[in-house]
């Protein structure tokens, strides 16, 4: 029997961010491995016109939860959605709900965050710092609390190249930042943002670093641990390979590549692509919850959930495998044939952006206009390039994360726990993982049926023919223009034509000669 699974039986667990990518997989695994847990409280806000109940219903009825319903048929009764907005004071939780949370919770998993790279500093501080501070305050009033697990990111200190499992100080105290957000107006905040974030690329990584300092400073006597995942990707094994439900990290770029929008991207091909499957992060997180509650380490332990130092894969290998997979299993209605490459300097990046991104978009929009439709490709391309510009930092740098605590934890697990809560990335086969990831993007994000593959292949063939036709026409037009304007081009043209003519005449004459000789010999 798994010790970890047994530990969570009968526990009341509070999860923030349970409707997010990581939160859903965390909830699924907890229910599947510990079906006798008492309750999972989730802090949810109404969104996109859906009530809390509708959101929970949608999650429970998704493919991700199919296996859970087999092992835990009363899962609906064990999820307790609590209306909450982490941007509000006391999270806008009702008194009764707050009372229940405070008196019953045993374990807290704090996953909620804004992961947008372009978030306004005020918004990012509110969710990634102030809400963390408030949640810790709440946790300190929970008499039954055994562990508080905070999900951060391995990139919170991406301004360093070697990152240890420690909390690094921030030049400006988080409390001062929180206070200043209350009285500074938006324009001033925008002005000081570059100075505050310093050599970090965005407000996300900066506020996640502040969030960690808050955890360290405000945890008091709580048993606290921090998990720092790198770039979280689709599931590796559980509940099934390739599950993914948002565009973050590489998922959006896999779509853009497979649909033929993305043809080049500035990257350091040999830099480590530090991807980590979401189920690996979740297994580690659950194990950390158990270890923190049972072993009560004296200090706050940080756990890196990264792959680079134990089982590295670089962007080049990843890109090749993405391309190989979309060739084998193409996406439907591609804009162009998938054929992307890495560029390594600004000049070639600009060149390929012009030739491979903007030019086809402009031509396609022209075609849409001609056929009476609304042009949209240039807009879409510009948004894609904006997104890429925000991700570029992460594919052009390399980091080294030490994983001593994570390895220590792995060695503390029983063989059964190592199997059920496997977070040993050394066992990951990258080629297989990426293939399943691309397939998962097709099935679960694009909602494309595998039965449509022959049609998608047919469409790619058509695109290839259009491509050849277009290139030939372009060549002929340019050549015709050159011939009309330049004597040299005319001379070259006549030289080539007369050379071809002579070659064909010689070939004809020699084959006629051979035929005649053959006739003479037989006759
Ligand atoms: C020789 C052979 C070689 C072969 C070579 C082959 C080469 C080719 C192979 C290629 C594959 C392999 C390489 C993979 C590289 C992966 C790099 C990953 C780095 C990730 C690092 C993460 C590190 C930190 C991890 C963490 O710790 S945190 C988690 C990470 N956090 C995020 O990833 C949030 C990012 N996103 C945003 O920050 C917002 O999205 C925002 C962008 C501001 C837009 O924002 P906005 O424009 O306001 O609006 P949206 O609604 O958001 O989106 C607006 C529009 O963009 C679309 N779109 C949103 N996203 C993405 C996305 N990703 N990718 C693409 N599109 C996206 C959305 O579909 C919408 O399209 P539309 O509907 O307009 O058509
Ligand atoms: N994805 C990645 O690549 C990585 C993620 N991480 C960390 O993992 C954690 C989870 O990330 P991930 O699941 O990918 O992110 P998602 O964006 O998928 O999920 C974010 C979650 O936070 C919730 N949330 C946001 N704002 C509020 C609010 N005001 N009130 C209540 N809930 C709110 C969202 O709720 P709603 O559904 O209502 O929007 C959602 O459930 C984050 O802490 C992130 O920093 C770390 C490294 C990499």
From TrEMBL:
Domain Fatty acyl-CoA reductase C-terminal: 357-448
Recorded catalytic activity of this chain's protein: 18-methylnonadecanoyl-CoA + 2 NADPH + 2 H(+) = 18-methylnonadecan-1-ol + 2 NADP(+) + CoA; octadecanoyl-CoA + 2 NADPH + 2 H(+) = octadecan-1-ol + 2 NADP(+) + CoA; a long-chain fatty acyl-CoA + 2 NADPH + 2 H(+) = a long-chain primary fatty alcohol + 2 NADP(+) + CoA; hexadecanoyl-CoA + 2 NADPH + 2 H(+) = hexadecan-1-ol + 2 NADP(+) + CoA
Segments forming domain Thioester reductase (TE): 15-284
Gene3D superfamilies (UniProt xref): NAD(P)-binding Rossmann-like Domain (3.40.50.720)
InterPro entries: FAR, FAR_C, FAR_NAD-bd, NAD(P)-bd_dom_sf
EC identifiers of the protein: 1.2.1.84
Keywords for this protein: Lipid biosynthesis, Lipid metabolism, Membrane, NADP, Oxidoreductase, Transmembrane, Transmembrane helix
Transmembrane segment boundaries: 465-482, 488-507
Any Pfam family hit: Sterile
Compartments, as annotated in UniProt: Peroxisome membrane
Topological type in the membrane: Single-pass membrane protein
Main subcellular location: membrane
Function: Catalyzes the reduction of fatty acyl-CoA to fatty alcohols.
Family of the protein in this entry: Belongs to the fatty acyl-CoA reductase family.
Name of the protein in question: Fatty acyl-CoA reductase
Taxonomic path: Eukaryota, Metazoa, Chordata, Craniata, Vertebrata
């Amino acid at each position: 029997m798994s010790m970890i699974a047994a530990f969570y039986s009968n526990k009341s667990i509070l999860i923030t961010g349970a409707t997010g990518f990581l939160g859903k997989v965390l909830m699924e695994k907890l229910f599947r491995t510990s079906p006798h847990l008492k309750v999972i409280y989730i802090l949810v806000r109404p969104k996109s016109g859906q009530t809390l109940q509708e959101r929970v219903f949608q999650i429970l009825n998704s493919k991700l939860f199919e296996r859970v319903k087999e092992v835990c048929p009363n899962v609906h009764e064990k999820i307790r959605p609590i209306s909450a907005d982490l941007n509000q004071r006391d999270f806008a939780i009702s008194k009764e709900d707050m009372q229940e949370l405070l008196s019953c919770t045993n374990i807290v998993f704090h996953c909620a965050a804004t992961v947008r790279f372009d978030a306004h500093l005020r918004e990012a501080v509110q969710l990634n710092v102030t809400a963390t501070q408030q949640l810790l305050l709440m946790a300190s009033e929970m008499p039954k609390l055994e562990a508080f697990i905070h999900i951060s990111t391995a990139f919170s200190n991406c301004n360093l190249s070697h990152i240890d499992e420690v909390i690094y100080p921030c030049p400006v105290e988080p409390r001062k930042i929180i206070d200043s957000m209350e009285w500074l107006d938006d324009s001033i905040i925008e002005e000081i943002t570059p100075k505050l974030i310093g050599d970090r690329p965005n407000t996300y990584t900066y506020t996640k670093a502040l969030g960690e300092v808050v955890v360290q400073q405000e945890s008091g006597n709580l048993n606290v641990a921090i998990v720092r995942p790198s770039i979280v990707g689709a599931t590796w094994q559980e509940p099934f390979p390739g599950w993914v439900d948002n565009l973050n990290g590489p998922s959006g770029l896999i779509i853009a590549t497979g649909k033929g929008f993305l043809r080049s991207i500035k990257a350091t091909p040999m830099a480590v692509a530090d991807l980590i499957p979401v189920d690996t992060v979740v297994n580690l997180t659950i194990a950390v919850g158990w270890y923190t509650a049972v072993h009560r380490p004296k200090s706050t332990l940080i756990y890196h959930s990264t792959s680079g130092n134990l089982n590295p894969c670089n962007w080049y290998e990843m890109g090749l495998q993405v391309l190989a997979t979309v060739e084998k299993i193409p996406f439907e209605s591609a804009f162009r044939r998938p054929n992307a490459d890495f560029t390594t300097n600004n000049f070639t990046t600009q060149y390929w952006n012009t030739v491979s991104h903007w030019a086809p978009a402009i031509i396609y929009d022209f075609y849409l206009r001609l056929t009476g439709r609304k042009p949209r490709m240039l807009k879409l391309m510009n948004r894609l390039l904006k997104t890429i510009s925000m991700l570029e930092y992460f594919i052009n740098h390399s980091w080294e994360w030490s994983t001593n605590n994570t390895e220590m934890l792995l060695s503390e697990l029983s063989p059964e726990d190592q199997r059920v809560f496997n977070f040993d990335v050394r066992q990951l086969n990258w080629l297989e993982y990426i293939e399943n990831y691309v397939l998962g993007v097709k099935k679960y994000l694009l909602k494309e049926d595998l039965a449509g593959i022959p049609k998608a292949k047919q469409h790619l063939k058509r695109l290839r023919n259009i491509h050849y036709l277009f290139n030939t026409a372009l060549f002929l037009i340019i050549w015709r223009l050159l011939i009309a304007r330049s004597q040299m081009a005319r001379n070259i043209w006549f030289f080539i034509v007369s050379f071809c003519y002579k070659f064909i005449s010689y070939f004809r004459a020699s084959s006629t000669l051979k035929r005649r000789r053959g006739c003479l010999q037989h006759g």
